[in-house]
Amino acid sequence: MHDAAAILAKADFFEMCGDTQRELLGFASDRRHFSAGATIYKAGEDPQGAHVLVEGSLRATHEGVDAVEPYTVSAPGSVIGLMALILSKPRPVTFTAISDCDTLFVPRAAFLKLLRQDDDLAQQAIDRIESDLREYLGALQPLRRKM
Questions:
Q1: How many Å is the Cα radius of gyration of the chain?
Q2: Which residues touch 134 (CB under 8 Å, ≥6 apart)?
Q3: CA-CA distance, 82 to 92, in Å (whole number)?
């Protein structure tokens, strides 16, 4: 479990959690290995939680009419599918392993249980997600002006 908590400590999003909270999440999480070419999850699937990249590189490919160019995720501690920690909704992105990859899968149920037990943590999560959404929407503003 200590290994999982250490992985979570390196993930920017989970900095809001204390050591005990990361230990609890680590206990509920599981380490996964994906060979090069394997799919972490496909667009249209509900991933049931998020992955924290431990090592390797992933390709993100968006689906649909508003799809952006594929991009690579290779920074250890990157959280893949962050919104899946709070929402049960099909994702518009397919994540595929470019190289052999290891992730830590954090189940939505475990994260939500932790939030229900700690109002301060829940508020920090809300604030962080709101901030991220504002950043994403701000990045879209130049495109809106062109329409």
A1: 16
A2: none
A3: 13
Q: How far apart are CA 116 and CA 118, in angstroms?
A: 6
Per-residue pLDDT of 23-44, as tens digits, reads 999 999 999 999 999 999 999 9
pLDDT per residue as tens digits for the range 56-76: 999 999 886 666 788 999 999
Mean pLDDT to the nearest integer, 110-136: 88
Report the distance separating Cα 9 and Cα 104, nearest Å: 12
Distance in angstroms (rounded) separating the CA atoms of residues 15 and 44: 29
Q: Give the start-end residues of each E strand in the chain.
A: 30-34, 39-41, 49-55, 58-62, 71-73, 79-80, 93-97, 101-107
Q: State residue 74's pLDDT score.
A: 95
| 23 CB-contact burial (10 Å; exposed 0-12 / middle 13-18 / buried 19+) | middle
pTM of the model as a whole: 0.86
Distances (CA, A) of 121 to 6, 18, 33, 132: 19, 9, 29, 16
Q: Which fold has domain 2-146?
A: Jelly Rolls (2.60.120)
